[in-house]
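Design request, tokens follow.
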């Protein structure tokens, strides 16, 4: 009885299905004191071998995630293990060679091939609470105290049926865990694709990062030898965090996310119409004799130069001081409207946008973009992640934090930032530099991006230098980022 209770505790603690099946059969064989056993699971219209043990023959197959290389048993009444599941009853046989009720060609062929001698057999079905068949435990050759083969006792039938019942619950629980994980993983993948495809300027960003991050994680596990620190469960947690790190962008206005230039389309259209208007007013003034033809021609050329300059500045990635100085000159240019009022060629709002030194976003627009990490945290807060994914929300929402406290939103620094977040930040910055799907710039060569990462780590101190060096030497990025293109995982 103590052993039965111990088995129940043991089975309830195991979540990995292959190891669980191995424990089920091992416990059943130990309780029944038998020499061999097989565990089958129902798959469609056949029973498939999952675990195979034979102490005399030294056979140990299954339990490592790979099924024994044996053909499945059809769900036909002539097969004793199939019959047991079909009729939902335990079948006990004292001698398979003297039992005409069932087809024992399988055991007999095995005996002929290996020299083993199958005699007694006990077949116990595993069923769900609803009575649905899950699989079968088949035990062979019960042994007495002297090591002689004997029949399985009637008392053992009840014991093994109890174990089979516990096993069925444990198998279903393990399957439910896998199904829930798969469902969560699928939902996260779907969310990631929805985020990335919301704008053409962010296609595959999160999935590229996740694929590259997974390869980098494996490299770290290999080069450090610390399989516990760089475990597969932590790898999955980092993958989930990576796929969800930009979920907050679901609420970011597209006119901010997709802003390829400093000026919005409406602002550019307004400037174009205004400059055309100034040119027409100059022509009218010339026709009315208020200005000379030379002055009108000079105004037309200045308007043309101004339009070209505004277009150039609006598209530029970075403004040098001389460009900003030229913008100041434009600030002084005015014209007289039809009512005689003095008006500027460019409004203050337009000049303010054109004066952004780096990138295309104004401080207010940048704040909107930066708020996506706060929104990410709020969107993930209601989700009840399982314990093994408990850090996903925190890591995803912290991917813009920097070691020198100049990141956002919480200005964390140093050891306040977990290693996984440091990896996520490196991946995010690297992808942003290399990717060709950003509205405000062309992607740069991976080697140049790596050089910038190293420079930031060494001089600015905002990135983890050791991790940056590991990332560079890993070469894991090469599979996903080739010169002139970015490649999403298949």
């Amino acid at each position: 009885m103590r052993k039965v209770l111990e088995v129940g505790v043991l089975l309830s603690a195991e979540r990995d299905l292959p190891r669980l099946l191995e424990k089920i059969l091992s416990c059943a064989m130990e309780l029944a004191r038998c020499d061999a056993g097989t565990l089958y699971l129902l798959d469609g219209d056949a029973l498939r071998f999952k675990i195979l043990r034979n102490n005399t023959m030294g056979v140990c197959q299954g339990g490592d995630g790979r099924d024994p290389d044996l053909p499945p048993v059809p769900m036909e009444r002539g097969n004793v293990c199939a019959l047991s599941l079909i009729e939902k009853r335990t079948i006990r046989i004292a001698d398979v060679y003297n039992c005409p009720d069932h087809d024992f060609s399988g055991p007999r062929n095995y005996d002929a091939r290996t020299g083993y001698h199958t005699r007694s057999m006990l077949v116990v079905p595993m069923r769900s609470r609803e009575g649905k068949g899950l699989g079968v435990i088949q035990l062979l050759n019960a042994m007495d105290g002297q090591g002689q083969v004997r029949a399985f006792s009637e008392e053992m039938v009840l014991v093994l049926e109890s174990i089979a019942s516990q096993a069925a619950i444990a198998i279903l629980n393990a399957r439910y865990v896998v199904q829930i994980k798969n469902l969560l993983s699928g939902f996260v993948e779907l969310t990631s694709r929805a985020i990335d495809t919301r704008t053409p300027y962010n296609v595959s960003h999160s999935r590229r990062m996740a694929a590259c991050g997974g390869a980098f994680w494996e490299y770290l596990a290999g080069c450090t030898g610390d399989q516990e620190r760089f475990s597969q469960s932590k790898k999955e947690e980092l993958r989930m965090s990576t796929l969800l790190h930009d979920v907050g962008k679901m609420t970011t206005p597209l006119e901010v996310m997709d802003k390829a230039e400093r000026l919005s389309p409406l602002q550019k259209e307004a400037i174009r119409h205004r400059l055309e208007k100034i040119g027409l007013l100059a022509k009218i003034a010339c026709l009315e004799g208020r200005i000379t033809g030379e002055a009108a021609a000079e105004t037309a050329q200045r308007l043309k130069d101004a339009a070209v300059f505004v277009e150039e500045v609006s598209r530029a990635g970075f403004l040098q001081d001389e460009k900003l100085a030229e913008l100041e000159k434009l600030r002084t240019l005015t014209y007289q409207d039809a009512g005689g009022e003095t008006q500027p060629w460019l409004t203050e709002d337009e000049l303010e946008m054109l004066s952004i030194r780096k990138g295309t976003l104004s401080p207010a627009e940048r704040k909107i973009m930066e708020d996506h990490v706060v929104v990410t945290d709020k969107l993930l807060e209601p989700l009840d992640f399982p314990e093994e994914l408990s850090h996903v929300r925190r890591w995803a929402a912290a991917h813009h934090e920097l070691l020198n406290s100049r990141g956002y939103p919480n200005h964390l620094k140093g050891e306040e930032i977990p290693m996984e977040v440091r990896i996520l930040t490196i991946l995010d910055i690297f992808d942003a530099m290399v990717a060709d799907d950003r509205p405000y710039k062309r992607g740069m060569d991976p080697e140049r991006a790596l050089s910038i990462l190293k420079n930031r780590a060494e001089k600015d101190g905002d990135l983890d230098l050791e991790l940056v060096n590991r990332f560079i030497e890993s070469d894991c990025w090469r599979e996903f980022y080739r010169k002139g293109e970015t490649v999403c995982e298949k």
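Comment from the thread starter after seeing the answer: thanks! The mean pLDDT is 89.
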